[in-house]
Design goal:
Elements: H1 2-5, E1 9-13, H2 21-30, E2 36-40, E3 46-47, E4 50-53, E5 65-68, H3 75-85, E6 89-92, H4 103-119, E7 122-124, E8 130-132, E9 148-155, H5 158-170, E10 175-180, H6 189-198, E11 204-209, H7 215-226, E12 231-235, H8 258-267, E13 270-271, H9 275-287, E14 296-300, H10 304-315, H11 325-332, E15 347-348, H12 356-367, E16 374-380, H13 389-409, E17 414-419, H14 427-440, E18 445-446, H15 449-472
Parallel strand pairs: 1-2, 1-5, 2-4, 5-6, 6-7, 9-10, 9-11, 11-12, 12-13, 14-15, 14-16, 16-17, 17-18
Antiparallel strand pairs: 3-4, 8-10
């Protein structure tokens, strides 16, 4: 698998410079791939300023990874060439196999599986995107982050994989390795999770899975992985022709997900129900230190909106402790005597949001050992919608600066909740001036109190379960 994620040489087989082979070439170059790139096409001599080989056999030197963009009917002959040439692995981006639901597509995929077993050639797909590994300069989408991180990812469907990776990357999550493995005719979910269990570059794993080929093996591997690393798991709907394994089991009460729920409960994997939910949970595990408890401090300028938002945290078992008397006395000595200020939890800064004053008070309150375990900066974006454009933008930038400074000054988890209220025309400016700088600086950003509470609760429950298991061993 290391040869798959960090190849020294890549071949692209297809109709370069036409789509999609040209896109793969451009993406590899833009992603900083430093190895050799070879083009394979039996109908031309040169493409994109590069020599084109008529067959895999003509390529000089070893080939670690080949991206297959040929029509479905040409895939098997190409794979035979790759097996004879001892190519490390092939990612078949081509569709039209079992997912099509046709007898021809099913038969072709079965023949690919048989060839992989007989020759030892490793195959991803068909109908996949291949690998994304920033450390190796490998990517299938130039919009994905170029920086490496500690989150691993596997995705079966193309669209969920791209959607989750892009959204998580935009929120500040950085990846060690990711793979879109498609129909799993050879390399599948169990082998990939087993690899991530021992991968030293990966601390947590997210997986979007349509169906499982070997239920008992998957159960064992998922259970073993969850004992050492968090696994965030989403079951996606399978495409036509791929309804098998766990996904097809129906319960007597008509609930199709009963077996999946039991799997999550028994293995300790963290189940999510949507791409947005998965990204929220990934943000918590990838960007937050483990909270010491569920004591929460909310610091905002929304008045009643911050108070109402506390209900979302209470549902998930978080508590908002009162400000300790000694801390109250310290802050009352000169900090909290401005109009509109309320020294409570949640704390309402009123018009003093995004100021040095907010930074000073919030930092002191979070650093107090007997107060909170987690800090939440509540920024209700509609509150400043009445401001002129330059003033509104300046406020967002000041808020980002204050939040980043607090994040760097304290050793407790801090998140920002950009609580959307009524500022639709300003929403893109909020992303640009507040969310993006904070995400880049490692500050987790959420779009609602409920999504933040749910994600952090999952994180805490995962570690609480691990602690219980460790005590019983």
């Amino acid at each position: 698998m290391e040869r798959v994620f960090t190849p020294r040489s890549v071949a692209i087989a297809g109709s370069t410079p036409r789509q999609p082979a040209e896109q793969i070439l451009e993406t590899l170059v833009a992603s900083g791939f430093q190895g050799r790139i070879h083009l394979v096409n039996g109908h031309t001599e040169e493409a994109s300023g590069r020599k084109v080989y008529h067959s895999v056999a003509e390529i000089p030197g070893p080939v670690d990874y080949l991206a297959c963009c040929t029509p479905a009917a040409e895939v098997l002959p190409l794979l035979r060439e790759c097996a004879a040439r001892q190519v490390g692995a092939v990612a078949i981006l081509t569709g039209g196999f079992a997912e099509s639901g046709t007898q021809r597509g099913v038969r072709l995929e079965q023949e690919i599986s048989a060839l992989a077993r007989e020759t030892g050639l490793r195959v991803m797909g068909p109908n996949c995107l291949g690998v994304y590994c920033p450390r190796g300069g490998m990517s299938f989408d130039r919009r994905l982050p170029a920086e490496s991180g500690r989150m691993g990812f596997i995705g079966q469907g193309r669209e969920p994989s791209v959607r989750v990776l892009r959204a998580a990357g935009h929120r500040g999550v950085r990846f060690s390795k990711a793979i879109s493995y498609g129909n799993a005719c050879d390399i599948g979910e169990s082998e990939l999770l087993e690899y991530f269990a021992q991968d030293g570059d990966t601390e947590a794993v997210a997986a979007c899975i349509e169906s499982v080929r070997d239920g008992p093996r998957f159960f064992r591997i998922l259970q073993n992985l969850s004992e050492v690393k968090p696994v965030i798991l989403m079951k996606t709907a399978p495409t036509s022709g791929k309804r098998n394994g766990i996904n097809s089991v129906q319960a007597g009460d008509g609930n199709p997900n009963w077996l999946w729920s039991a799997l999550l409960q028994q293995t300790g994997a963290i189940g999510v129900s949507s791409a947005e939910d998965m990204v929220d949970t990934m943000v918590a595990f990838a960007m937050m230190p483990r909270p010491r408890g569920r004591r929460l401090g909310i610091f905002g300028g929304a008045g009643g909106a911050s108070v109402l938002a506390t209900d979302a945290w209470a549902i998930y078992g978080f508590v908002l402790p009162p400000v300790p008397p000694q801390l109250r006395e310290k802050l009352d000595a000169g900090l909290m005597n401005q109009a509109g200020m309320m020294l409570h939890n949640p704390l309402d800064f009123s018009m003093a949001m995004s100021t040095e004053f907010m930074y000073d008070v919030t930092t002191k309150m979070m650093m107090h050992e007997d107060f909170v375990d987690i800090g939440v900066i509540h920024n209700p974006t509609g509150q400043g919608a009445w401001l002129a454009g330059p003033a509104f933008d300046a406020g967002n930038k000041a808020m980002a600066s204050a939040a980043i400074s607090i994040h760097r000054a304290v050793n407790k988890p801090l998140v920002i909740v950009m609580h959307y209220i009524d500022s639709r025309p300003h929403w893109q400016g909020i992303f640009r001036d507040l969310q993006e700088p904070c995400s880049e600086a490692g500050v987790p950003v959420y779009y609602s109190m409920a999504s933040a509470a749910r994600a952090i609760d999952r994180m805490l429950r995962y570690y609480e379960r691990r602690s219980v298991l460790a005590e019983t061993v």
